[in-house]
């Protein structure tokens, strides 16, 4: 059982760190609280949806910004969606970049937009990585017969 | 899942509240679904606005409340909001990650009963039942205060068939539905928090038009549910349905009237007796496509906005300069004009056409009624002598329809403002009871729509149908065109002039007109002011412009001075449209007068 306790501790510490570093915010906690026996994989499912949607949006963004003549409205629309999406799981840092991104869109600043695109891609990759690690930890705990600490 | 017809409410209200969630973001859909389920609500999720509308239409009484995101790919959330409010009369909550005040305001203007900011917490969702409850209470209150309780029975939800084909299901099913709904009503009776239950009849545009026609025929003052029902000749409609609708209608009108009364003229356009001479000759507005001067003898134009209605109008795109007293500049856009009534004044549409969808008449009735019906078009018919017809309502179009028509007629590129000056010869006070037919024909004597387009860019097609511009045949009295009504058409400034009709306030208009004709700038300025007001976007200030027309005689007429914003939104497609317009110089004075 020691192993489980250790893992649980690890999970808690890791989660706390993510919050502290701003990768996740309270919305994520909300999601965790929504999870229950009727839907034990709720958080994972939601986050998976987020990953899918974000990847699609990031691709669209890359395409739109790659055009000869950039349609900033379209860019803005995608960023807006991404912002909404990231807000759903509490991906705070992604959300923050989106805000800056939208400002560049309004200003029709191509360079600014491209930079933001890069930034948002980075943040997305980071949070994806962190969440995957988190889920792995949870799996390990469950596999070891423990329960996820809340 | 056909459980939609099961009584949603149990004794544990609000548990079991039937919520429809519409959001293009799959992540949020999932989260909201979960949250709402935790609140013990019955949730249906939907990723597309169109699907949501279909669902709502299929099960007319299948949902209690709708929660929708503002930004959706296939349809603007605000538009959906309006449609739902008008067609189904359900409370709608908007959501967005964007919390800008202007957006929130827009939501409220369009009729949202709440606006939530994402990320949404569960506690915010827990209380949404209050909106359902509140609506119910208000309905009951309205009914109770206006109808004798004797008449009020459990309303049967008539077959949800409407002329425009909102048939929910085939016959056998509809019969079944009726039974189900009746059962449901019975059940609901026991559990509903409000003691009175009303079946929800969907007042489609067609149905509403019938209603209005009937009301007009009977005469607004003499109207009664039974008479209306008889005239309407809609078999499945009950007297109670009509009664409650009538009552809402009255409230709507009286509200408009009140608002109208409150607004004092802001100076500006008034009826003026524009003598034909003044307007003789066409104005050489550079960008005017057509300049017409309507002869005083020409009746005003009753423009029924409705596309369908328009057909009755014959817009003759010939300019008859000199004959016309007014100046009408038609926007360059294409158009189908729907000038009803006497489009005898040739309206020449050059490249663009103006569709005047407004028939002012009992505009307020119509327009306001839009509240009941998406009559965006505020068809104002300014039939000179006509009393504002209540029939404007006939021109109500469901916003959906408008939307479609709009789609069909692409809005012309540049946005134009159309300023319509309607000269009206003496016109009898507009009485709501006037029938549309009269209006159509008459277009009472002299209505001179005067359109000044300042600049090609300013010609705006406000008509819902996109490129149609609504002309208002000015009725001597009425002329309060509610700018708001024109929101979609927002760029039309109406100047109603009453030719030979001495109305207080008309003088200003007249002089204004004269100025226009003579090319003075001051008149333009006031016009400009109006325009500015108009363009100001979704706000009441727009009323100012029209309000400037002092129609002292019109007190008894319910002029629609204000059309609920949300009614017009569908027409308007996009408020940004308006704001874009504001960027255009309102009046390019140099262009205004030849």
Global structural class of chain A: mainly alpha
| H/E element order of chain A | HHHHHH
Radius of gyration of chain B: 23 Å
Order of helices and strands of chain B: EHEHEHEHEHHHHHHEHEHHEHEEHHHHHH
The tally of helices of chain A reads 6
Helical segment tally of chain B?
Answer: 20
Please tally the β strands of chain B and state the result: 10
Radius of gyration of chain A: 18 Å
Q: Into which percent range does the helicity of residues of chain B fall? A: 25-40%
First and last CA, distance of chain B: 66 Å
Protein chain pair with the most extensive contact, residues per chain: A-B, 22 and 19 residues
Structural summary, described in words:
The complex is a heterodimer of chains A (150) and B (594). Chain A is mainly α. Helix content of chain A is 79%, strand content 0%. In chain A, helix 3 runs antiparallel to helix 6 and helix 5 runs antiparallel to helix 6. The longest helix of chain A is centred in the last third of the chain and has 34 residues. Chain A is elongated. Chain A starts with a helix and ends in a 7-residue tail after the last helix. Chain B is α/β, with parallel strands linked by helices and 594 residues long. Chain B is 37% helix and 8% strand. Chain B has 20 helices and 10 strands. Chain B has a 5-stranded parallel beta sheet, sandwiched between helices. A 3-stranded mixed beta sheet of chain B has the order 9-8-10. Chain B has a two-stranded antiparallel ribbon with strand order 6-7. The termini of chain B are far apart. The interface between A and B is medium-sized, with 22 and 19 residues.
């Amino acid at each position: 059982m020691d192993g489980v306790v250790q893992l649980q501790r690890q999970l808690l510490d890791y989660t706390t760190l993510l919050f502290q570093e701003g990768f996740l915010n309270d919305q994520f906690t909300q999601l965790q609280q929504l999870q229950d026996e009727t839907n034990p994989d709720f958080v994972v499912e939601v986050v998976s949806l987020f990953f899918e949607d974000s990847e699609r949006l990031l691709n669209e963004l890359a395409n739109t910004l790659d055009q000869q003549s950039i349609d900033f409205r379209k860019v803005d629309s995608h960023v807006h969606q991404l912002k909404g999406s990231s807000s759903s799981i509490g991906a705070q840092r992604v959300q923050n970049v989106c805000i800056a991104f939208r400002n560049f869109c309004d200003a029709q600043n191509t360079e600014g937009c491209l930079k933001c695109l890069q930034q948002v891609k980075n943040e997305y990759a980071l949070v994806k990585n962190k969440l995957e690690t988190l889920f792995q930890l949870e799996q390990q705990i469950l596999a070891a017969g423990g329960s996820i600490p809340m | 899942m056909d459980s939609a017809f099961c009584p949603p409410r149990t004794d544990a209200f609000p548990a079991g509240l039937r919520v429809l969630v519409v959001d293009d973001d799959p992540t949020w859909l999932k989260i909201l679904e979960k949250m709402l389920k935790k609140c013990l609500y019955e949730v249906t999720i939907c990723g597309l606005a169109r699907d949501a509308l279909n669902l709502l239409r299929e099960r007319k009484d299948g949902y209690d409340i709708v929660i929708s995101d503002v930004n959706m790919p296939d349809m603007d959330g605000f538009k959906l909001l309006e449609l739902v409010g008008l067609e189904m009369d359900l409370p709608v909550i908007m959501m967005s990650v964007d919390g800008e005040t202007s957006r929130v305001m827009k939501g409220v203007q369009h009729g949202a009963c709440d606006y939530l900011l994402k990320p949404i917490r569960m506690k915010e969702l827990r209380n949404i039942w209050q909106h359902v409850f509140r609506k119910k209470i208000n309905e009951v209150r309205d009914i109770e205060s206006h109808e004798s309780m004797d008449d009020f029975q459990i309303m049967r939800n008539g077959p949800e068939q409407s002329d425009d084909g909102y048939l929910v299901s085939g016959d056998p099913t509809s019969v079944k539905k009726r039974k189900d709904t009746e059962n449901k009503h019975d059940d609901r009776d026991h559990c509903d928090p409000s003691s009175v239950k009303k079946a929800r009849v969907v007042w489609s545009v067609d149905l509403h038009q019938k209603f209005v026609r009937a009301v007009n025929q009977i005469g607004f003052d003499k109207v009664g549910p039974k008479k209306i029902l008889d005239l309407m000749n809609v078999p499945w409609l009950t007297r109670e349905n009509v009664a409650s609708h009538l009552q809402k209608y009255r409230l709507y009108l009286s509200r408009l009237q009140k608002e109208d009364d409150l607004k004092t003229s802001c100076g500006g356009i008034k009826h003026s007796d524009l003598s034909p001479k003044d307007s003789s000759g066409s104005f050489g507005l550079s960008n005017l496509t057509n300049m017409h001067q309507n002869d005083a003898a020409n009746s005003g134009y009753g423009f029924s906005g409705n596309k369908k209605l328009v057909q009755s109008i014959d817009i003759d795109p010939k300019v008859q300069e000199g004959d016309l007293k007014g100046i009408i500049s038609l926007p360059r856009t294409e158009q189908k004009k729907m000038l009803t009534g006497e489009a005898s004044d040739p309206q020449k549409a050059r490249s663009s056409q103006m569709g005047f969808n407004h028939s002012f008449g009992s505009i307020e009735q119509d327009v306001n009624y839009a509240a009941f019906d998406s009559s965006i078009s505020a068809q104002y018919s300014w039939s000179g002598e006509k009393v504002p017809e209540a029939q404007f309502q006939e021109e109500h179009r469901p916003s959906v329809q408008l939307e479609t028509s709009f789609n069909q007629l692409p809005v012309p590129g540049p946005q134009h403002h159309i300023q319509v000056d309607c000269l009206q010869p003496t016109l009898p006070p507009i009485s709501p009871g006037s029938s549309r037919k009269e209006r159509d024909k008459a277009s009472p004597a002299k209505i001179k729509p005067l359109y000044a387009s300042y600049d090609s860019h300013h010609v705006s097609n406000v008509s819902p149908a996109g490129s149609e511009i609504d002309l208002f045949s000015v009725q001597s009295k009425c002329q309060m065109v509610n700018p708001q009504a024109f929101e979609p058409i927002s760029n039309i400034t109406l100047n109603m002039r009453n030719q030979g009709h001495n109305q207080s306030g008309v003088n200003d208009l007249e002089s204004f007109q004269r100025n226009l004709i003579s090319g003075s700038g001051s008149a333009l300025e006031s016009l400009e002011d109006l325009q500015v007001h108009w363009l100001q976007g979704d706000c009441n200030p727009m009323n100012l412009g029209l309000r400037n027309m002092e129609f002292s005689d019109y007190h008894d007429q319910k002029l629609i001075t204000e059309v609920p914003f949300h009614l017009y939104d569908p027409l308007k497609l996009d408020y940004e449209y308006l704001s874009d317009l504001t960027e255009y110089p309102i009046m390019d004075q140099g262009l205004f007068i030849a």
